[in-house]
Amino acid sequence: MPPAAPRSPRPTPAARPEPGAWRGAGSGHADPFAVDPIRRSAALVAVAAAALLAPLVVDGGDAAAATLAGGSLGLVGLALGLPVLALSLLEAGWDRLRRRLDPEVDLLDVPPRLARLLRRHGYASIALVERTPDPALLLLPNLDPRALREVRRAIARWRYERWQAAGFP
């Protein structure tokens, strides 16, 4: 009988499961609040509040047991959901305020390719694009003089529309 080949105690890299494979075909990460955190945390808070308050409505001998079971789950849901909801609302408010004070290039009437190009290279606000000299913007890859003229024209048109909306002050 020929000798058996030595076996490695560790599985080969091909046999190892992918990191995060237990999550299934979802979003690729285990954070349930990563996508639409306001809606998801508000739903969690609503369900947790219902689980906490529903046993108080029920009368009878099982009300105490229902309060212990539902109330504990409700408190856990509130403890997890309320901070996420508060932070998500603060973040959304901050983003809205920042966009109002410093509008982004998405508001310009330019092709999406140009807006993505400017954002990718750190020119997210209209004011920053306006302050940057033309030679510096022309150094960006895929931004030719025609596209730069289009961006400058869109900024001038955006400023004029805001001036008109303000009543020609």
Automatic annotation (TrEMBL):
Keywords: Membrane, Transmembrane, Transmembrane helix. It comes from the Bacteria. Residues 1-28 are annotated as: Disordered. The chain crosses the membrane at residues 41-58, 64-90. Residues 1-16 have a biased composition (Pro residues). This is RNA polymerase alpha subunit C-terminal domain-containing protein.
